[in-house]
């Protein structure tokens, strides 16, 4: 036969977007946030980022080798998990915390379920929560930001959400000073995880993802929107005790969670209505944990809980099939 | 203005610029015309000539067998040199009549011009059937069947499909620009046959010249041109009906269940030819395009022309073809060889090189949900495909596999390159097999 013809069935074209392009785009979108965290927390932050990314890629390759699966670290999903994990750790995390987190994320969070596409929970969040409950001290040792070139030494500090929680527990009131730092919190000048700090940088990346049509508004908007609504109700009832919706928006992991963690395609619903239900669920649980739970921060738990509900949500939010409307009429 | 459309769908790069400004050229007769008997959905025609017979253009060479069938006619005058199975676009060798044209292209006697005013609906329908007219959009459903709604089905709307949403194809576009009067003459006949007053012509907004021209031609004739959003599969019958009338054809139903008949613009022009001039369907307009065609063109081709001849008339091939597609790239079929003849359904011939159809390896589903959002049937392709691959046929059925219109949007958009529509097709086959058994 002198030539070879492809005889596959239609369609004969496909979109240019591939899984690794999607993963790479999300990685690019996270770069500004990474840069900001390195700016505010210096080399330790960079070290955490490098360790987690290399750790996740390494553990993925190792796990796939041991499980005799094809090694697919080239698809970028492990690197993305690594970056997301780093953004969920305190800036001064020690090397073993970062590597242990990587191992948990990839091996327990992903590969035991069958690898990319089969993990029911967001791997980076699985690791974060495992670390949070296993090493509460290390996971809540925050450093105050010391911008590069400012000559400041890093000192320990509490996060704004932590400050508020402590104050409310001790005095029943929220400190005045907390509400005044909103602008600083927005750009990232506060204590917190690497990726919690700069809402601005994260939103910049998210804008890129919207432009690339990788993100749709469903999950982020319903997540953020329900946080604003619900926290707003409490704030209006008792502004002396409950922080304003704005405070909720710019502190803690809300932006990171709403735009990058909850929107993890694998562990969130595939139907549009399901995405909205999922986002609202995340938002409500986040506010309830923040206001009434034992932890100051609730985004991670909220997303993991909703991850568990994803199959159920998909089942009950199936789109209305074409041609089934007229039947009822 | 907000353009009308349907929910779902997507817009692949339409690549129409290769041929949209090329006026229709008549492709010369090939040395041999290979006329398959299976050129429509339904029972294939039965050969009624023998090797050695001399035939004239328009002479019946295959007789219709059954209601959902139409006769097949000689595309030119000449000698029947073979009656034998030949490679058919379906990939099988199927009965065909091979004619060597004598170059004189003489019409058979007895083709009478008809007056649509004077003829009854039944007479018109019979003329359309006898002329072998089928849906020219590519589905090739015999036209007279669509025009014969059963008792109790009231048709109130006729929709002309000038959407042409498949990338690369521009045949309908050129037809509307160059022969608007033929199209409208056909519309008048169709509307008389159906007894309807409401007529729409749906055209995608990426053909503004056709929209303008048809709108002008339609003024005062009670026909409304509806510009539609540029989106695939806007030309799918049920999606088109929803976009224009807001009516949703029930699952498993037909357009006539909501009082609508849809005909392609090419079909309308063929109807006009059949009724006004008595001419059977022996030619059609076909877009020859794709990155490997030297000079993409819109051609008036004789049915039965081998594809190689069409390519040759378009300046030949630039490089080695890796994929030959008959029809559009979204729903057309890959061909085994350029020796295959064009049929009544051949709306396009596309040649792609190896670089244009890169083979990507299949990855795991990352549950991005794009297939769900793009699906115009509003089913969940990824879920159905997953069930189909596990052979969970009842689950696939429950999730609406039979509602799939096989447009291929899901497969096109999938970042993991999963063959979703192919898996659903498999499920549909298995569901039908199961139903037959029960």
Sum up the overall morphology of chain A in one term. globular
* Strand runs of chain B, count: 17
Structural class, from helix and strand content of chain B? Answer: alpha/beta
Mean pLDDT of chain B: 95
The portion of residues assigned to helices of chain A is 55-70%
Family (chain B): Belongs to the 4Fe4S bacterial-type ferredoxin family. RnfC subfamily.
Subcellular location (chain B): Cell membrane
Region (Disordered) (chain B): 1-22
Biased composition (Basic and acidic residues) (chain B): 13-22
Q: In words, what does this structure look like?
A:
The complex is a heterodimer of chains A (329) and B (438). Chain A is mainly α. Helix content of chain A is 61%, strand content 1%. Chain A is built from 16 helices and two strands. Chain A has helices at 19-41, 43-66, 77-87, 95-108, 123-134, 136-139, 160-171, 176-180, 182-187, 199-211, 218-237, 245-250, 254-261, 272-292, 299-316, 325-328, and strands spanning 142-143, 156-157. In chain A, strands 1-2 form a two-stranded antiparallel sheet. In chain A, α1 (19-41) runs antiparallel to α10. The radius of gyration of chain A is 21 Å and the shape is globular. The model of chain A has no long low-confidence stretch (mean pLDDT 91). By secondary structure, chain B is of the alpha/beta class. Helices cover 27% and strands 19% of the residues of chain B. Chain B has helices spanning 121-130, 143-146, 171-178, 180-194, 208-218, 237-245, 265-277, 307-313, 370-374, 381-389, 393-398, 409-413, 420-437, and strands at residues 25-26, 33-36, 46-47, 54-55, 60-63, 72-73, 78-87, 93-101, 157-161, 198-204, 223-228, 260-264, 283-289, 297-302, 321-326, 333-334, 348-353. In chain B, the strands form four sheets. In chain B, strands 1-14-13-17-15-16 form a six-stranded mixed β-sheet, sandwiched between helices. Chain B is globular, with a radius of gyration of 21 Å. The model of chain B has no long low-confidence stretch (mean pLDDT 95). Chains A and B meet through α1 and α16 of A and β15, β16, α12 and α13 of B. Chain B: Residues 356-385, 395-424 form the 4Fe-4S ferredoxin-type domain. Chain B: [4Fe-4S] cluster 2 binds at residues 375, 404, 407, 410. Chain B: Residues 1-22 are annotated as: Disordered.
């Amino acid at each position: 036969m002198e030539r070879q013809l492809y005889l596959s069935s239609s369609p004969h074209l496909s979109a240019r977007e591939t899984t690794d392009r999607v993963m790479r785009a999300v990685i690019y979108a996270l770069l500004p946030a990474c840069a900001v965290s390195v700016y505010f927390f210096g080399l330790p932050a960079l070290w955490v980022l490098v360790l987690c990314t290399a750790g996740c890629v390494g553990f993925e390759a190792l796990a796939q080798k041991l499980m005799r699966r094809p090694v697919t670290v080239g698809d970028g999903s492990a690197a993305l998990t690594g970056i997301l994990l780093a953004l969920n750790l305190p800036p001064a995390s020690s090397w073993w915390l970062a590597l242990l987190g990587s191992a948990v994320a990839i091996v327990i969070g992903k590969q035991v379920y069958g690898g990319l596409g089969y993990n029911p929970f967001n791997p980076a969040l699985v690791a974060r929560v495992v670390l949070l409950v296993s090493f509460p001290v290390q996971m809540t040792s925050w450093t105050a930001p010391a911008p590069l070139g400012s000559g400041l030494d890093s000192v320990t500090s509490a996060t704004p959400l932590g400050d508020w929680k402590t104050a409310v527990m001790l005095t029943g009131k929220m400190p005045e000073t907390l509400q005044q730092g909103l602008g600083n919190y927005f750009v990232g000048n506060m204590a917190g995880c690497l990726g919690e700090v700069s809402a601005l940088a994260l939103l910049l990346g998210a804008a890129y993802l919207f432009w690339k049509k990788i993100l749709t508004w469903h999950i982020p908007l319903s997540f953020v929107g329900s946080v604003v609504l619900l926290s707003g109700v409490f704030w209006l009832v008792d502004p002396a005790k409950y922080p304003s919706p704005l405070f909720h928006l710019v502190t803690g992991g809300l932006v990171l969670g709403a735009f990058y963690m909850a929107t993890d395609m694998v562990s969130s619903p595939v139907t549009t209505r399901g995405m909205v239900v999922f986002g609202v669920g995340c938002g409500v649980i986040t506010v309830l944990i923040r206001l009434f739970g034992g932890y100051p921060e609730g985004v991670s738990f909220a997303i993991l809980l909703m991850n568990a509900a994803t199959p159920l949500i998909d089942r009950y939010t199936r789109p209305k099939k074409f041609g089934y409307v007229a039947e009822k009429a | 203005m907000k353009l009308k459309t349907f929910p779902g769908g997507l817009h692949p790069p339409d690549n129409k610029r290769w041929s949209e400004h090329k006026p229709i050229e008549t492709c010369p007769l090939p040395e041999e015309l290979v006329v398959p008997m299976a050129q429509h959905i339904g029972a294939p025609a039965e050969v009624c000539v023998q090797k050695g017979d001399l035939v004239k253009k328009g002479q019946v060479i295959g007789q219709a067998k059954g209601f959902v069938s139409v006769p097949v006619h000689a595309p030119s005058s000449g000698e029947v040199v073979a009656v034998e199975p030949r490679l058919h676009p379906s990939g099988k060798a199927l009965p065909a009549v091979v004619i060597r044209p004598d170059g004189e292209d003489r019409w058979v006697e007895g083709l009478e011009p008809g007056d649509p005013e004077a003829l009854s609906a039944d007479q018109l329908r019979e003329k359309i059937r006898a002329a072998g007219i089928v849906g020219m959009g590519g589905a090739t459903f015999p036209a007279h069947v669509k025009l014969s709604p059963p008792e109790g089905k009231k048709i109130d709307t006729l929709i002309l499909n000038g959407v042409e949403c498949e990338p690369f194809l521009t045949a309908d576009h050129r037809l509307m620009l160059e022969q608007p009067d033929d199209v409208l003459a056909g519309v008048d006949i169709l509307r008389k046959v159906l007894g309807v007053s409401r007529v729409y012509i749906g055209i995608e907004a990426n053909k503004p010249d056709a929209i303008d021209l048809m709108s002008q031609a339609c003024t005062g004739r009670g026909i409304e041109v509806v510009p539609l959003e540029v989106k695939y599969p806007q030309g799918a019958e049920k999606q088109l009906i929803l976009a224009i009338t807001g009516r949703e054809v029930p699952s498993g139903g037909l357009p006539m269940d909501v009082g609508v008949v849809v005909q392609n613009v090419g079909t309308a022009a063929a109807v006009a030819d059949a009724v006004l001039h008595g001419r059977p369907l022996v030619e059609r307009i076909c877009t020859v395009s794709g990155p490997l065609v030297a000079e993409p063109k819109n051609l008036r081709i004789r049915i039965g022309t081998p594809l190689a001849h069409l390519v040759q008339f378009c300046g030949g091939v630039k490089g080695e073809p890796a994929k030959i597609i008959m029809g559009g790239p979204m729903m057309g079929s890959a061909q085994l060889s350029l020796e295959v003849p064009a049929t009544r359904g051949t709306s396009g011939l596309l040649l792609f090189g190896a670089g244009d159809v890169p083979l990507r390896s299949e990855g795991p589903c990352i549950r991005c949900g794009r297939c769900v959002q793009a699906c115009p049937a509003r089913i969940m392709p990824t879920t159905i495909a997953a069930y189909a691959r596990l052979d969970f046929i009842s689950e696939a059925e429950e999730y609406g596999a039979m509602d799939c219109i096989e447009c291929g949007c899901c497969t096109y958009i999938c970042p993991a390159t999963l063959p979703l529509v192919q898996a659903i097709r498999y499920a549909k086959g298995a569901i039908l097999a199961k139903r037959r058994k029960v």
